[in-house]
Hints:
heterodimer; A: about 190 residues; alpha+beta; four-stranded antiparallel beta sheet; globular; B: about 425 residues; mainly alpha; 18 helices
Amino acid sequence: MIAVSPKLAVLGVVCLLQLIIPASMIGKREAALRGGTPYKFKTAPVDPHDPFRGRYVALRFEERTAELDGQTIEQGRKVFVSIYEGDEGYAKLGKVNVDRPDEGDYIKVRAGYGSGGKTIHVELPFDRYYMNEKRAPEAERAYFSTNRGTNRNTFALVKVMDGMAVTEGLYINGVHVREYLDEKGDK
Amino acid sequence: MAGKKSIRWLYDELPGLVGKGVLGEKQADALKEHYGPVADIGGRKVALVVFSIIGSLLIGTGVILLLAHNWSQLSRPARTFLAIAPLLGAQAFGLSVMRKGLGVAMRESAATFISLLFASAVAIIGQTYHIGGDLGGFLLTCSICILPLAFVMDAVMPAALYMGAITGWVGYQRSNDESVYFFWLLLIPLIIKYVQMVKADRYAGRAVFLSWVMAICLPIATGFIQEYSIDGAWIVVFSSIFGFMYLASKKWFADAETVWVAPFKAIGGAGIMVMSFMLTYDFCWDEIRYSYSWQDFGGVDFMMMLLPVVGVVLLAVPLFVKKRFMEAVTGVMPLLAAVGFLLITLSGGVEEIGMVIFNVYLLVLSITKIASGLKRESIGSLNGGMLMLGLLIMLRFIDSDMEFLAKGITFILLGAGFLAVNVMMLRKKKEVAK
């Protein structure tokens, strides 16, 4: 039998703990992507980049304010906002609560500034769509050229399950951004 | 503790001393046994460690950049594998290095790989699942997960990366108006690691490297942390951190042979000088706009600002007792900054008080330095003092409304004074040598 020194054993435990973190990040999101309810969030993207994770399309959503449920919530606090599908098929934000709702879909968000004690600004956790460094600027240009006017159909498809929200795709004119850029490239 | 340089000098002298009969061979051997070998701490070993770390850093960051490219054509499972596989490889390498009991260079390499590839794994998962842009959370997760490597693998690189990451985290928190005080808690394990390394050998290459990283990061982090609720608090806060670094170096790194192995002294001393000259101008004191009453000084914000000054004074007092005036006067500068701050607030914003305090302080400090240089016949100390005095006079003359003729003559006189004192000192040294 191989003798294991205490230091080696501790290093083994550290390595395991280091693996648990990425594994849990993956697990929760895979579950949401496979079994979550899809919602379309209308967006307004720009194109910055992250030093570690590369280029992304920053997503800004039309739906950013939610109703307060008679509570006072300080800025920066983690809260839950219920979501539902609106008449046009896009996601709508319901009420904000400090406790997890008993029914319906909801997302864990950070509370922003309040407005008149009735509504509150919320920061949605899926504010980035990562893309290949060459394609992100193309996506940005495509977005801006199609995003003018009122007849827009550009949204992020987000799967939601037990408060976890994971972006599955970014759609321009109803077409997945990757396919949209491929089609545009072929023309 | 004698430095390696001194021991090398002694070993070089020993054959001559034995030859002349000043020492017997037995005594020479006893001296060698007492001080131990110095040859094995050679440059080659240090170079090996340095190049191993640089190599690992380059490869690790290269992997991060490769993954940042975003291989969106790959499926999610493939990208997840790409995230985890390099980390697993690095961990296997680390476990093998520890199992075989390999040396410092391999341990540092493996620890650097694991640290960087852990960060890249978290980053690529963030990229794959489009996780929001919480850079603070990313830095905090990475720093907490890599720090144990510094202890378990006895490696300095995870500790250095940790210090850099928590400094970045404080910056992120401050820019987002979020709490920053958790930093002090995050600093505790790093200080434990640092004390371990310093106790083993404070002048060993790896301990010196961590000293430099801490000496650079601490003032930056303090800059982010300092509370902005008091206008001009930075004057006292930065003075305290530089003063504390300088005095701590004098207490715990007193026998450093060069400034390269005493980074707290280098950065603390430089910080004190820069701050002192800045504080001779009104634009710094200008920020203290409001008049506070004595009751305000009992508040938490004021206590937090003034508490470090007490620590600085406690470190400076023994130096005064031991009559090490030059060091004591240099280190006590934060106390003057605090006094200036309090007097200006209580006087309703008379900025001249602070300017006068620091002009007098620099005058006293430069004269003390010159006197110390003359007493110890140290040309470096003498010139340092004269340079400070000269700079102070020049700055005040530039500020004044005097004519160019008068300014010109003053500058020439200062230059002549410099040359004359140096010539005198060199002659004196030659005479002593004869």
